[in-house]
Amino acid sequence: MAGFALKLKTKSGQMVVKGLTCKDTICELKHRLSSLTNIKESSLHVLSGYPPKPLDLSVSDATLESRGICSGDTLIVEERQEHNVLSGQKNTIEPRHHIVDSGLGCPGILMRKVVPADNSCLFTSIGFVLSGKVNVDNAPFMRQIIAESVSNDPDSYSEAVLGKPNPEYCRWILKPDSWGGAIELAVLSNFYGLEIAVVDTLNAIINRFGEDQHYAQRVFLMFDGIHYDPLYLEPFEGNSIQTMFLTNDDEVLHQAEELAREAKSSKQYTDVNGFNLKCLQCQELMQGQIQAQQHAKITGHKNFGEIA
To answer: Quick one: 150 and 284 in the same domain?
Structure first.
C-alpha cells in the first residue's frame, strides 16, 4: 500500500516508519521497530491509540490491520524493564498509573505535584505528565528536541520570535540554566501531540498550547510566575492518578479554571517584576526577574533566593 507510514516516538526522539503496509505482520513491525530503536524485540513495549494502550505483540502473524494500526498512527515505543522476582527471572512492564481510561469527568481532585526548582522545572513537569514520575534527567532530551525543532524551522522561529538569532537561541536552550517558557511549551506540545494547558496563577487564566491543533489529549501544568509544576487528578476511589485527559473533558478543565482563581486569590504566585531576590553566592540584593538575569549574565552567578 503506497504511502503507508507510522509516526514513532521514543525516549531518544521522533521518527517516521515507512516501507510497511496494513497487511504486514506484527513480527515484521517488531523487527522494524527493533532495528530503529536498538531495543531487543523481546523487550519492546508499544502503545497506541488515545489514551495510549499497550499493543498486543504476542501473535506474531497477526496483521497490522487486524490490530487496528492504520497509516498515520502514532506508536510510543518503550523498553520493557527486566526485574528479578521470587518465581524466577522474567520481564515485567511497570504500570502506567498516570493514565486512567475512565472516560470523561473522572471524579477526583486536581492536585499539584511539586518538582525541583532547578531551572528545568518546565521539562521535569512535562516529563511527569507523560510518565507519571518526577525525573530530572528528562531535561537534556527535551532541550535537544527544542533546539532541533527551532533550528530546522528558521522561518517560523526567526529572531523576531525568539528575541535572539536562531543559532544563538539553539545554543542557549541547551544550557542547563536556561528557563523554558511559551516557545518551549509550543514546541513540546507539537512534538508530543498534546495540548498543554498552563494554569497561570498570577493572572488566574489558562493558556492552552496546541489548542488550535485539535489534539485528542490534554495535560495540565501550573505556573506561578517563575516556576512550573505538573497537575494530576487524585481519584476519590482507587490508587491510580491521572495526568492525561481527553480535550473534550470539560469537567477537569473547569477544575483547572477554579484552581487558577483560588491560587490567585490566595496569592500563590510570584510577581516576576516586583519580587525581591538575594544572590546566594555574593549576597547582592535585587528586585525582579530582569535584574536577576542581568546579574547572572555579568557575574555568572545562578543561585538566587526570594526574600520578604
So the answer is: no
Asked about 83 being catalytic, the answer comes back as no
Return the pLDDT at 101: 40
User: Does residue 98 carry a catalytic annotation?
Assistant: no
Report pLDDT digits (tens) over 76-117. 887 765 443 333 443 444 433 344 444 444 457 788 888 988
- The single-letter code of the amino acid at 118 is D
| Average pLDDT over all residues of the chain | 79
Q: Which amino acid appears at position 164 of this protein? A: K
Q: What distance in Å separates the CA atoms of residue 74 and residue 31, rounded to the nearest whole number?
A: 17
Sheet holding 285-287, edge to edge: 285-287, 276-279, 304-307
- Give the active site residue among 118, 153, 177, 250: 118
**Rounded CA Rg of the chain:** 22
254 belongs to the catalytic site: no
DSSP lists the bridge partners of residue 81 as 92
* Residues 47, 174 within the same domain: no
24, 98, 106, 121: the active-site residue: 121
CB contact set of 298 (below 8 Å; sequence gap of 6+): none
217 bridge partner residues: 246
Q: pLDDT value at position 131?
A: 86
Please state at what angle helix 121-131 crosses helix 138-151, rounded to 10 degrees.
100
Residue 89 in any domain: the answer is: no
Whether 141 and 258 map to the same domain: the answer is yes
Q: Which domain holds residue 281?
A: 276-307
Q: Which residue in the list 22, 31, 97, 227 is annotated as catalytic?
A: 227
227 is catalytic: yes
What's the pTM value of the predicted model, to 2 decimals?
Answer: 0.58
In this structure, the answer to whether residues 243 and 134 fall within a common structural domain is: yes
